[in-house]
Please model this.
Amino acid sequence: MTFDISKFSIPTDPGIYLMKDLDDKIIYIGKAKNLKNRVRSYFNKNQNYKTQKLVENISNIEFVLTDNESEAFLLESNMIKKYRPRFNIELKDQQRYTYLRVSDEKYPRLLVARRTRDGHFLGKGKTFGPFTQGSSKLLTIGTLRKAFQIRICKTLPKKICLEYHLGNCEGPCEFKDAQKRYPKHVNALEDVLKGKNQTKIFIKKLEEEMHQAAELQQFERAKDIRDTLIRLGSLQTKQKMEYVENSDEEYFGIDIREQTAIVMNFRMINGVIRDSDKFFFDLVGDNSFSNFIYQYYSTHKIPKFIFVNELPENKILLESLLSEQSGFPVRIIVPSKGKKKDIITLILKNISLIRQKGGDPGLVELKDLLHLSVIPNVIECFDISNHGKDFAVGSMAQFVGGIPNKSGYRKFKIKTVSGRDDFAMIAEIIKRRYYGLLEANSEFPDLIVIDGGKGQLNAAVSSLHSLGLKLSCISLAKEHEEVFLYKRKHPVIIPKSNSSLKILQHIRDETHRFGVAYNRNIRKNKIKK
Model:
């Protein structure tokens, strides 16, 4: 049942929206200046196929209001990392990054936060992150514990341990004064984990406390504060070195075709390409170049200069957010000449090469999953639309490069089968299609897809064999989206979020739509007569 947006109350404030399916699972998270205008736009006509598939799965929508668009941007990014909705951009290396947890205990500990496969955090307490190696927020867990006198013992002992004698813990297990001070240490630690500006504020506060303690001749207290400042100072020096050595500038090229974007980046250090990667994402909802860049830098070091082939949406807001996170001004620039322009041109050439090789990641994935001899650049899919013996028709959709090629679509009136026999009908239209290609000496597709299960697949393959053809042929069963291969007992199960399955679903749905439209026309014409 389609979600009726007209009966749904939507606020006009800025904020984020969480779209859920029938199982109450979040499938998409987006942001907006005006939630009402943005959410209603999803239900307009002429949306691309992938956005249509998102809308078809919506059963409920929740909202979280924010004071402004900047807050919505931040909240959206954090919520995407937390819930990992299948229609949002998810970077392939997102799970490599560290989250820290301040435990929910009488005297909390600082731990690495562990996550389950579905993204939920294990253990109670407050979670901070994600942090990258060298991040201004991740100060290494061991040094943080020492700097803020945080205990490391799993079970609180009755007597002080070696950590107390090393000056790394004040011993709340034994001393009442330490027990009173411990919450202050934890609060200070949490402030630092929240951001770099908080670190500066905390250091300034410690310096004031140290001078005050010295004036009051509390020399032991002043010494402890001085030691903490030395530790934090050492950490800041490491951060600066990390930046100088690893984060000069970064270049991005983006190429958008139909409903898929390819992004490639070069990270430059002292004018030399030191790292490169490529990313693919679907243009669903708010998925955009701007969202990609913000997600990317939530788990990578931020450089001072980001060079791109086209400016992302919300450029000024994006620069402001990245500058606030990094602690220095960040600029996003489209270079117009010189070496920087040449690097962008080089990235675009690489993306073009990816496209030429069948760059849609779903096609490459299909080749690997189905053990095909080539990337299935040309796919043809068949379906039967059966409304009684007088209104049975066959339909075929053709995809080239992962997108519809409507000039290649074909429709068939069933000629040799009477009654409701889908297997025989599939056998007929397969034979007619590929006998025709044989006669015309035309090229065959790289992959044939049958809408149905094992029975439909066997019927199609039998027809191909009768023509002396051995073409790659599979079937896609709609109920559980199982992929059947000929003479293979068990189906291939492709995760719903994989782009390979989305391509198969898209061509199957196109074939079905085309067949239903043809069937409807035949019935209308019959009634008119």
Notes: Confidence is low (pLDDT under 50) at residues 132-139, 234-247.
